[in-house]
Amino acid sequence: MLAACAGNNGNTGNNGNEATEGTNTNTNGNTGTEQPAGEWAVKKFDPPVTVTSAIAIRDSDKLRGGDTPENNPITRYFEETNGIKTKWKWLLTDQNDALNQKIRLALASGEELPDVLAVGDAVLLNELIESGSIMSIDEAFEKYASPRTKEAYEKNKDVWQAVTKDGKKWALPQISDGFVGDPIMWIREDWLKAVNMKAPTNLEEFEAVLAAFKKKYPDKTPLAVTGKNTQSPLSGWMGDVQFLFGSTQPYIWDKDANGKLQYGSVQPTAKDALVKLNDWFNKGYISKEFGTHDEQKATSIFTAGDAGIVFGPGWMGGWPISDTLKNVKGSEVKAYELPSGIDGNVGRTGTKLAYNMYVFRKGFDNMEAIFQIWDAGLGYLLEDEKNPFAAGFGEGYDYVMKDGKPSWDVPEGNVELRYLLVAPGNKPPGMVEGPSIYERVLAGKKDTVYEQKVAFSSQPLSLEGNATALKQLDKAHRNLYIGAPTKTYSEKWTLLNTLETETFIKIVYGKAKPEAFDQFVKDWKAKGGDAITEEVNAWYEEVK
């Protein structure tokens, strides 16, 4: 999960956990697990082929038993099974945006790029396209991608928008699982019991719970909120209030009733939500210092026992929500689906369509090898029981064998191996149906090696949180503007974002009247917003 957010690594797949992030294996083999019959098959190249790439090594990337970045369980598997050799042309230290800097230096100096590079920056992708140093992948994808790889992209077509320009696909994007960052509602269940109330399902009920919490615990804060995120206060990765905005989410570009892209922060519902937050501020439902609270500070109020509700991703159940049980004797915490917001609809800002993508050097002629590796990674994500990495990516690293069975209790500590040349990242939405692996494990299932691994490595609250997050995937609104900044965007967005942030926080604090929102919208449009909206929609028409 976390590695999918890291754009400065040669390998951006979290080789230890992604198979646990999504829906279940289909034991009938219909969709998503085993390959359907056809011409595509696992292949061994003879003579072997060598593929070069780059990787930024982290402090936690510890190798054991004499292994090296080019000779470890992952690289050995692909060389022995597929005849694919790994060579790291650039071996960097993961600090100060090292990989992106190296790529830009190579472009400036004319140095030849490695065969494959991981890129997480839309601006850098555009620079690579304009430089003529990478190739489009349209033909290679159609020729070499496995059936289940093609199916994954067919069911998640929007992800191609991140890499499309002039009608061509310039990279192979990872498909995010659709919920890695999506918030749910975490509530102190013991507080709910103390006020004899149920978890809220709509805004009216939510406000009633806030009022009851404040009355019962006058020295506490009913709702923990972050307001310090300079790009999107009120919508940080923990401690957000996205639900309040309903179906029109702030800080993102989403479709309007006519199918055009509109910016959520300048829509009327945003004003209504801000006015409501100001009311909660005045009533003491949120901290008077929320504007100085970043995500971890806001959440720490909850885990210290001083707040009754906090919003954030399902994975928070593992950290830091579980700290509440340690810090507050007798506390109970439970994960709930989001209530409806200010417009009567349930809504949240969805996970990015793609966190990273892979580009390929112009002239690189081993794309078939790339899709062999990609399919192996995808099989793992889809819980393919025949996948070679089902137990883990390296014996002695993320699992050991005990009495002929895998165990994830590694004596020397669990180490993530990140040496796949390409990694799909997360389980693509829509590939298989049925209860998620979290729901299955919560219900006591430990039939497959994947279920056994999740059961061993996950805390109950983490399982509960992730299972809850998956229940409202259809309520998520993803940012549909995922291309490189347009001309006006590059020139004006910093100014517009500052104007937006200041206006929102002032209204919530009561330092500006609600009418200040109307003036903000006028200024936003006049100072570049209208031009950006026109440019964004021109881009969208080209890539959709």
In short:
This protein has 544 residues and is α+β, with helices and mostly antiparallel strands. It has two domains: 49-176 and 354-433, 3-Layer(aba) Sandwich (D-Maltodextrin-Binding Protein, domain 2); 183-350 and 489-543, Periplasmic binding protein-like II (D-Maltodextrin-Binding Protein, domain 2, 3-Layer(aba) Sandwich).
Notable characteristics:
Bact_solute-bd_prot1, D-Maltodextrin-Binding Protein, domain 2, ABC transporter substrate-binding protein, alpha+beta, three-stranded antiparallel β-sheet, signal, single chain, 544 residues, globular, four-stranded mixed β-sheet, 2 domains, 17 strands, 16 helices, disordered N terminus
Question: Any overview of this molecule?
Answer:
Helix 8 runs parallel beside helix 15 and helix 15 packs antiparallel against helix 16. The strands form seven sheets. Strands 8-11-7-12 form a four-stranded mixed β-sheet. The N terminus is likely disordered. With 544 residues, the chain is α+β, with helices and mostly antiparallel strands. The longest helix is centred in the last third of the chain and has 29 residues. The chain is globular and about 75 Å long. The protein contains 16 helices and 17 strands. The chain has two domains: 208 residues, D-Maltodextrin-Binding Protein, domain 2 (3-Layer(aba) Sandwich), CATH 3.40.190; 223 residues, D-Maltodextrin-Binding Protein, domain 2, CATH 3.40.190. Keywords: Signal. This is ABC transporter substrate-binding protein. It comes from Paenibacillus swuensis.
